[in-house]
Write a sequence for this structure.
């Protein structure tokens, strides 16, 4: 596989907030002369965008982005890339200024920041920040695609409804096709939609899981301890709001099996070493073994629900009942799949670049 040009200190940082004028991303480390794959960016943003679906918020944003610097005529200049998306559909009045929403970052951020009131819509902790994340992820996907590496995420589970995926023999082509069909699940999408709609009608929410595969990763990328592939990918994935667990390969299934049942036997095939199974998810000792890297991210139900919840009024010191208004997702999993794919692509881009 052709090597990516050695890049020092790739950094991706997000800025803005849910109800601020804009959200954006700063990217350091894109080599000069790199073509920016806007199609990859647009695809991620389209999958992440709310679409009047049964699971998603009624808040509709165009998510049109502008490169403020670092890109000229579709090509990276080698300097810091800054891209921004305007917020055009905010309703800050829907959010209480002193009553934190249970299981949101409202209270913790209020204390940490020494704020005089709670940031509307969650501020910088909102899922709104995954829009600029998709810009960075699209750039990373474009760079990786030129080197024969694909990063593909899809919805695996919503509200207890589990679909098929890579471990069931689903091909990369099928996963790509599924990304054009909401809820971006390879199978059982209709049942998943029903689970999300039932939660919405009850004023509640449901969680789920997103699976991701990395195809074309060469052998020998990564290392032990915190330099490993699992460490790098998990680091990026936990930056996506609502992700509460990450597991590679068979994941928690390892706890129920014998070693003889889940070890991946080595074989020669077509002149190269492969494993007959891929329970390890393409990683041994933190290093890629040449098989597809597979992992799952579990996302909690969004905490913003219409049911009455117990909370406190920080301005009066009283216990209160919160009856939340606003526009919220009954299930964030379909939209989060694009963010998971973006975060994973960024992690893989960093890993490959460090080895170049």
């Amino acid at each position: 596989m052709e090597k990516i040009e050695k890049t020092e200190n790739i950094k991706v940082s997000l800025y803005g907030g849910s109800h601020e004028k804009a959200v954006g991303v700063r990217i350091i480390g894109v080599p000069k002369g790199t073509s920016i794959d806007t199609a990859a960016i647009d695809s991620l943003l389209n999958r992440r965008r709310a679409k009047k679906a049964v699971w998603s918020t009624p808040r509709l944003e165009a998510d049109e982005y502008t490169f403020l610097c670092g890109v000229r005529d579709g090509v990276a200049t080698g300097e810091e890339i800054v891209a921004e998306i305007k917020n055009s559909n905010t309703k800050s009045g829907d959010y209480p200024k002193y009553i934190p929403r249970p299981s949101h970052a409202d209270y913790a951020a209020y204390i940490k920041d020494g704020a005089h009131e709670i940031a509307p819509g969650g501020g910088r902790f909102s899922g709104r920040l995954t829009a600029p994340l998709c810009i960075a992820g699209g750039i990373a996907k474009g760079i990786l695609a030129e080197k024969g590496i694909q990063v593909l995420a899809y919805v695996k589970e919503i509200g207890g409804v589990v679909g098929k995926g890579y471990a069931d023999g689903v091909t990369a082509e099928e996963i790509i096709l599924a990304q054009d069909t909401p809820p971006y699940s390879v199978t059982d999408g209709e049942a998943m939609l029903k689970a999300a709609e039932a939660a919405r009608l009850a004023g509640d929410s449901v969680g789920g899981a997103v699976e991701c595969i990395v195809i074309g990763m060469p052998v020998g990328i990564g290392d032990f301890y915190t330099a490993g592939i699992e460490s790098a990918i998990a680091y990026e994935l936990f930056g996506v709001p609502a992700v509460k667990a990450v597991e590679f390969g068979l994941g928690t299934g390892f706890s129920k099996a014998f070693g003889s049942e889940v070890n991946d036997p080595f074989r020669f095939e077509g002149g190269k070493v492969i494993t007959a199974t891929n329970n390890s998810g393409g990683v041994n000792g933190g290093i890629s073994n040449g098989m597809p890297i597979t992992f799952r991210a579990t996302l909690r139900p969004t905490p913003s629900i219409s049911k009455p919840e117990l909370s406190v009024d920080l301005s009066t010191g009283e216990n209160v009942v919160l009856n939340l208004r606003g526009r919220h997702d009954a299930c964030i999993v379909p939209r989060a799949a694009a963010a998971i794919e973006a975060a994973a692509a960024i992690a893989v881009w960093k890993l490959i670049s460090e080895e170049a």
